[in-house]
Amino acid sequence: MSSAAEQEAVAAERATPEAVVNGVSRKVPGPPVWPGASTPLGARFRVGPDGVAGTNFALWAGGAEAVELCLFDEAGRETRARLTELTHEIWHGFVPGIMPGQRYGYRVHGRWDPWTGGRWNPAKLLLDPYARAVDGEFLLPPEVYGHVRDWPQQQVADTVRDERDSAPHVPKGVVVHDDDDWADDRRPKTPWADSVIYELHVRGFTRRHPGVPEELRGTYAGLAHPAAVEHLVRLGVTAVELLPVHQFAHEDHLLRRGLKNYWGYNSIGYFAPHAAYAASGTTGQQVGEFKRMVRALHAAGIEVILDVVYNHTAEAGELGPTLSLKGIDNRGYYRLQSDARRYADYTGCGNTLQVVQPHVLRLITDSLRYWVTEMGVDGFRFDLAAALARSMHDVDMLSPFLAVIAQDPVLRRVKLIAEPWDVGSGGYQVGAFPPLWTEWNDRYRDAARDFWRHALPDVREMGYRLSGSSDLYAWGGRRPYASVNFITAHDGFTLRDLVSYERKHNEANGEGNRDGTNDNRSWNGGAEGPTADEDVQALRRRQLRNLLTTLLLSTGVPMLVAGDEFGRTQQGNNNAYCQDNEISWVDWGLLEEPGWRALFDLTARLIALRHRHPVLRRRAFFSGRAHSADGLRDLAWFTERGTEMTEGDWYAPAATLGMYLSGRDIPGRDERGAPIADDSFLAVLHAGHRPVDFVLPGPPWAQRYEVVVDTSREEQDEAPGVALPAGTTVTVPGRAVLLLRVAA
Predict the structure, then answer these.
(1) Which region ranges are annotated with the description Disordered (predicted)?
(2) Cα(221)–Cα(218) distance, rounded to whole angstroms?
């Protein structure tokens, strides 16, 4: 056995940093690497032994043979130091003197054996999965691939290891120190039933905003600017749902065409705010800027929900780049097929994270908790959530991921939204997620679109969607707000394009118009795209009013998309994921046009109406039963004859539906324990192109009504309309919604 002195000499040799200049490495004097701690993972600046300041580095790398920490100075010179401490497959060490702002990465050694899933390659600098900030951009030259990307025989290219150094070509992690305790922040904590969600893109929302200073447009600071916040407040939304803000990379096929990934569904850093959205700097400043944005939105009463992509990463499949997890432990982080060279792909993006593995599950939950506790966010929308809920193969609502979320004391208290499907077999799971979760309800989207283009065979589907989708969510204690109702989202046509195009027009994407869905359920009103026909233009604006009114009167949680409230267009592109330009950016000049300003005013008025009236945002499903001797029920459906719908009426072809919402018997109590009472409303939705005579129902439903909203009109009266006696026949114009309040 060697002596203690010999052991200390070996440890000192291993801990001596190694400098790499122009591809030549040599040992140089430097601070020793002390043992440090295996937790927390990542790079954490702290005070170490004897009061010495430095940074603790910890990396899970199961199966690795060695891990080198790589430090970079301002000139890009690299210094390497081996992490010799290994605890439960976590390599760790404390480096004295390493301060916030230090750029770093890892090189991980192991066996190159793609046939068994091993893709270790120390020539590739790897991003720390726990990096709090990232400096630089992924541009994907051949050097960043673990294999020889341009190998002549592409069918075996992934098996040929590339020995070129990737460090000059990839971003670096940044050591960040932030002791913000959020003591001055007040979370809005808006109840689910009271929520109105507004999906927006950090860059696209402010890139053309005239009230935001030029240097702040397209950034977190731009979204925090009073001019941007003021629009959200005037509109009345309670939460913004931000398209991905985790650090992401651009796909090679886009870069080759001179395009970039605009939406950001290609994550590579689950703790780092995307650096390109920062106005203040990228060596840690982006963290503080993001927090200031959250504070500004919270101060305005607006929650922040992040659209997160934990189902896959930017490393794609076997022919994708080696940026982080693939080079740390490929077979530990990713689901592989029985042929371990290949990836199980439930996402359509080349790979799927192996969420059933404890260290991968820890990565995801650590990331989620970080964004809640240290970055101040209020919830998450999970992209392709069904992929996260898969156990070994099938989607499993008792999966480790869902179980961990359900018992986590932090995560179970924030807003959780599932995109309840993936692209794998059995991946469509709308209505199946457990309590605590809400879901994007695509059946609502399809029904609303089909109704207003007069393509539904009857009104059964529309009745379910208007009243909270009880057929999907009335189980296990779930509530109507389990349904996030939406008609448009980032993926697909904008609302204006939905009524202006019958076919997608994605030529700008460079994929021969083959990308994007063909199932748009749209109707152009009689002309494809822009037209000078004033009748077509007026019809389209009316259809927009119909769609927005339907959405904001429906039971459930409404979600709007930025700019839909004043006619934003993507020129018929229904897959603008790679359009970082005027196609995707919100055009604020539309608000200067009277017709589009009127649409904004109607949307804001409808949201305000929703906030004022609890009958429009119920916390429990309708019973459809009478709760009093006069026979008045909480929900009733009427034909145009003013009679209640029979079973036969539900199955008969129809374009008109009357929905009565009683404000008398709203379940639950207010904050002081008093019963909740409200006005009652009758909504008449008519999708036919000809006017229809509708008889207003009499007692016990009402004695009189007054019109609150009439979507056949460009301008809406703020004051209540003229009282109409029950039994009156009102003419509902073609393709219109009438909302009537029951008058006292």
Answers:
(1) 505-531
(2) 8
Question: Minimal CA–CA distance to 123: which of 50, 68, 72?
Answer: 68
Contacts of 719 (CB under 8 A, 6+ apart): none
pLDDT of residue 720: 57
What are the pLDDT digits (tens) for 164-208? 999 999 999 999 998 788 888 999 999 999 999 999 999 999 999
Distance in angstroms (rounded) separating the CA atoms of residues 398 and 405: 11
Whether 6 shows a pLDDT value over 60: the answer reads: no
Q: State the greatest distance between any 2 C-alpha atoms of the chain, in Å, as a whole number.
A: 102
> How far is Cα of residue 471 from the mean position of the Cα atoms in its chain?
25
Confidence of residue 392 (pLDDT cuts 50, 70, 90): confident
The answer to whether 233 and 280 have CB atoms below 8 angstroms apart is: no
Q: What is the pLDDT of residues 630-650, one digit of tens each?
A: 878 999 999 999 999 999 999
Decide if pLDDT at 20 tops 70: no
What pLDDT shows up at residue 721?
67
Token output for 548:
């927005």
Query: What is the distance, to the nearest Å, from the Cα of residue 243 to the centroid of all Cα atoms in its chain?
Result: 5
Q: What percent of the chain has pLDDT over 90?
A: 88
50 CB neighbour count, 10 Å cutoff: 6
Q: Is the pLDDT assigned to residue 395 strictly greater than 60?
A: yes
pLDDT at site 675: 85
Question: Parallel, antiparallel, or unpaired: how do β-strands 557-561 and 197-200 relate?
Answer: parallel
* Placement of tokens 């600046």 in the chain: 45
- Spatial neighbors of 683 by CB under 8 A, at least 6 apart, are 466, 553, 658, 659, 661, 737, 738, 739, 740
Residue 184 forms beta bridges with which residues? none
Q: What are the residue numbers of the active site?
A: 383, 419
How far apart, in whole angstroms, are the C-alpha atoms of residue 279 and residue 272? 15
Give the CA angle between residues 348, 351, 357 to the nearest 5°. 130
Q: How high is the pLDDT of residue 669? A: 80
User: What is d(CA 499, CA 522) in angstroms, rounded to the nearest whole number?
Assistant: 6
Instruction: Identify the bridge partners of residue 96 per DSSP, sorted by sequence position.
Output: 54
Give the chain's end-to-end CA distance (angstroms, integer): 96
Q: Give dist(CA 411, CA 404) in Å, integer.
A: 9
> What is d(CA 599, CA 213) in angstroms, rounded to the nearest whole number?
26
Average pLDDT rounded to a whole number, residues 525-538: 97
Residue 688 C-alpha from the chain's centroid: 35
In degrees and rounded to multiples of 5, residue 336 shows phi and psi of -115, 155
Q: By the 8 A CB rule, do 246 and 382 touch?
A: no
DSSP character string of 166-182: -GGGS-EEE--------
Closest CA to 541 of 604, 614, 598: 598
- Per-residue burial over 517-528, b = 16 or more CB atoms within 10 Å of its CB, e = otherwise: eeebbbbbbebe
Alpha carbons 111 and 331: distance in angstroms, whole number: 12
Q: Which positions ≥6 away from 380 have C-beta within 8 Å?
A: 305, 306, 307, 308, 368, 371, 414, 415, 416, 417
Q: Model-level pTM?
A: 0.95
> Considering the chain, what is the average pLDDT of its residues?
94
